Amino acid sequence: MFFKLLKDALKVKNVRNKIFFTIFIIFVFRVGTHITVPGINAESLEQLSDLPFLNMLNLVSGNAMSNFSIFSMGVSPYITASIIVQLLQMDIYPRFVEWSKQGEVGRRKLNQATRYITLVLAFGQSMGITGTFNTLSAVSLVKTPNISTYILIGSILTAGSMIVTWLGEQITDKGFGNGVSMIIFSGIIASIPNMFSTIYEDFFVNIRSEDMIRSGVIVALVAFAALVIVFFTTFVQQAEYKIPIQYTKLVQGAPTSSYLPLKVNPAGVIPVIFASSITTIPSTVLPFFQNVPWLSRLQELFSYTTPSGMMIYALLIIVFSFFYTFVQVNPEKTAENLQKNGSYIPSVRPGRETEQFMSSLLKKLATIGAVFLAFISLTPIIAQQAMNLSSSIALGGTSLLILISTGIEGMKQLEGYLLKRQYVGFMNLED
What we know:
Low-confidence stretches: 424-431
Number of strands: 3
Strand content: under 5%
Number of helices: 17
Radius of gyration: 24 Å
Mean pLDDT: 76
Distance between the termini: 33 Å
Largest sheet: 3 strands, antiparallel
Shape: globular
Helix content: over 70%
């Protein structure tokens, strides 16, 4: 179905240009991920290949951190800045609240504020991450560690992060799909061959013949679990709850009833990315306070390989699921739009009661979505601990979730483009 849809889309010039533009931007990004920052001994990162912190950064940076490239920070600072800006819009910072109600003009101001916050976060995170890896690696990551070198590396990584953010915005505006998701998507796709190589080396290289059957069984279980996760994730991501809608003002040719579709997982994959970004903060600031015992304890608490870290990771996913669900679907605005369009939900009064109904329904859907996201994200991590798998495999559930979610969004966008083309063609024919 996907290939047929892609084939039909490539026949449309406008859609074809969007797809090729997106491929070009991703190509530029992938080239940048192989350009190592000057003054860095990237080979020292191989000693930290099983470090959960590094693998988590690899995930949110589009697999750019493994080479400590100029794009190592990826979209992680932008994601964190977006969280801060969205939180400040919720009756916390009056100016941001005012901008959120100003339509397109306000959106531009909020985007500008997000960029400024991204710039500050990118510099701080790049300095912290460089210091962390230089401290943890046996062979120095920074060839000449001093203040000027750290500032130079931080400036390069900050510039790279802003370029990646700009590339993502270009994909969103002129290309195909969501820019942030596509950047991460491309990195996960690029890392799949390395993941298969890791599985092969872990289970089939230099093992005794009597362990071959055991290794084969484990690989079969991992493959089966991956298929189950793919099926389950695809089913939930496509599932919708349809709210019946009735119309009081009949427009000529308009139906008397319809429905308002809401996803069973309204927040999508964003809460997982948010939670992944937050868990990197303790390791980022650790080098600046090496003699503070409680900070080391905090890093251990946030490590998703420990029971406490798993609980915190799951809790962050749940919290961000509820938060982002109400960001995606605002009950107050939904009730207001329904009333303006002369429509209502049967057995529910327009206005305040509709808002309360939507809020109650969104809480239920957010609960389902939060449990689903936490289960998908934690299952591979628990399997890693139980079967002693590579830490890169532990992020397999999150990676699959991002791949499937981005793929589904892409297919729906392609269907929308094709449907719009057919509609425009029909209207032109009528004229």
